[in-house]
Amino acid sequence: MTTSTGPPRTSTDVATGDAHVVVACPPGLDVRRTLGRLRRGAGDPTWDSSPGEVWHATRRGDGPATLRLRPAAGGVRADAWGPAAEEVLADVPGLLGLRDDPTGFAAALHPVVARAHRTYAGLRLARGGDVWAAVVTAVLEQRVVGLDAMASWRRLVVRHGTPAPGPAPARLHVAPPPPVWGSLPVWEWRAAGVDAQRSDTVRRAAAVAHAFRADLAPAELARRLRTVPGIGPWTAAEVTARALGDPDAVQVGDAHLPHLVGWALTGRRTDDAGMLHLLAPWQGHRQRVLVLLAAAHLGHLPAYGPRGRRALPMR
Fold it and tell me: How far apart are CA 31 and CA 56, in angstroms?
């Protein structure tokens, strides 16, 4: 499923990238929906798209990189530029959800889940690979309306990140590395609409960012994250879901997920305890159920107030 036409090969031709690889994909893979869960709104400066291609600016151990994805015969062609081009190309199968293993997922246990699974059969759980970016975006989304968090992320990345390498769209930027986030002055955070609690959490996490690695198991990464004051179960689950494609992550403490699950599966609202009870039959694949229910039901739920998100108390 994840084989390619050969190993990435370097090139000096900017039309094809510093390196490229063609990744074989199964028919019906929904690239747009799979990648869309990683993008923090239409204005996310680390993502760009146009007909026939998707661009992503990211960072790995070797530094920044720009990735371009385009359809190719039998799969997706990935071109990459920048110091971390080879690392990013190696992560493309995970990014496309090709390392997502649904073995043991029993969609038929509930007709709503089964229907969503049929309707969105091409939707996979993407493994974003950039753990630090997932940490920052998740912390920014604590206790605020999603649009406000997206605006904060956009402003901070554009002001303190760097233009994406290669022939990328002009708006595309690579988010700054942890030391930059850790040293941002208070007025930059406030100008971006980020309160002291969230900015302090990012700074504390930046000091130990080396411990948050993409090669960790989701449970271990979540454990390490939760040693940082200000990071609780909601934030840790968001990070493992986005960065590692964790199929079992459950964002306990979310303002809306319990209602989504309760309404979809029982026709009634519920709370965190009720959500966990309803998801129990899919242990090991609870994030998969959440993603399918969100795809099928988002926008079709009764209105209970603003669509903000909150995190549980951190202590």
Answer: 13
Question: Could you tell me the two tokens for 91?
Answer: 């992560």
User: Which stretches of the chain are assigned E, i.e. beta strand?
Assistant: 9-10, 19-24, 47-50, 53-60, 63-72, 75-81, 162-163, 173-174
Give 145's DSSP letter.
B
CA 306 → CA 96, 116, 142, 147, 246, distances in Å? 31, 25, 14, 11, 27
- 8-state DSSP, 82: S
The phi, psi pair for 162, rounded to 5°, reads: -130, 150
Q: What is the pTM of this model?
A: 0.90
Q: What are the percentages of helix, strand and coil residues in the chain, rounded to 5?
A: 40, 15, 45
| Domain 95-315 belongs in CATH node 1.50.10.10 | no
* Other beta carbons less than 10 A from residue 283's beta carbon: 11
User: How many residues belong to the chain?
Assistant: 315
Residue type, 283: Q
Helices and strands of the chain, counted as H and E runs: 14, 8
Q: What is the pLDDT of residues 258-309, one digit of tens each?
A: 999 999 999 999 999 999 999 999 999 999 999 999 999 854 555 443 334 4
Neighbours of 141 (CB within 10 A): 25
